[in-house]
Amino acid sequence: MRIGYLEDEKSQADLVKSWLLGEGFAVTHADTGRGFINLLTDNPVDMLILDWQLPDMEGVDVLASVRNQLNSNVPVIFATQRDAEADIVRALQAGADDYLVKPLRKGELLARLESLARRAGVTTDETRLTLGPIVLDNAAQKVTVNGELVKLTPKDYQLAYCMLRNVGKLLSRDYLLREVWGIDASLNTRTVDVHVSRIRRSLNIGPEIGYCIKTVYQHGYRLEKIQALEVVE
Ligand code: CA
């Protein structure tokens, strides 16, 4: 599970990062609101911890950008000073899921993250991913649909893995290219489109299984649950 962490105070950031890494989380950290939003654009995360007072923005504005600009509904915990009740109310109204009062305490932070992950259905077990009839077993590097083994090329497998562990998140073509192919100047983002179409077909992702891979114009793809109203009869 990857945590996006926004904190401008270095000693606090180093401390919390060490707690998170020690628990086996991956961490994407930034120390300005603007830098954080840029970072998240190309680095999807599973949960966010947001500081409230930043040099360039307020936590509430970062939260609004995450929800609107990045169109992300990842769970968000924010950290605030003890006396800022008005801030807490604003953050919860802006769509934060939980808050912690500084100074942060390790046990409490980890417990809140765990409980939030459980509530939000964020998967912590990345060796076996399930999406309707699709089961990806990362230990065996195999994918089955309705129990039947599906043959995928190694790149298609990597792409399927990347998309299945980021359900609901917008993944840019650049991000997918980096995750699956590594940085390679000889490839262009059109390659991603070809492979996405292929796994959509091989894994039969569509209305029958209740999920689709949505193409987000000029940006990338999102594997998402089809809302009842959108189901094509
Ligand atoms: Ca701060």
Textual characterization of the structure:
- With 233 residues, the chain is α/β, with parallel strands linked by helices.
- It folds into 2 domains: 2-120, 3-Layer(aba) Sandwich (Rossmann fold); 128-225, Winged helix-like DNA-binding domain superfamily/Winged helix DNA-binding domain (Arc Repressor Mutant, subunit A, Orthogonal Bundle).
- Helix content is 39%, strand content 23%.
- It has 8 helices and 12 strands.
- A 5-stranded parallel beta sheet has the order 2-1-3-4-5, with helices on both faces. A 4-stranded antiparallel beta sheet has the order 6-7-8-9, with helices on one face.
- The protein is elongated, with a radius of gyration of 19 Å.
- The structure holds calcium ion (CA).
- Calcium ion (CA) binds next to loops.
Quick overview of this protein structure:
This protein is α/β, with parallel strands linked by helices and 233 residues long.
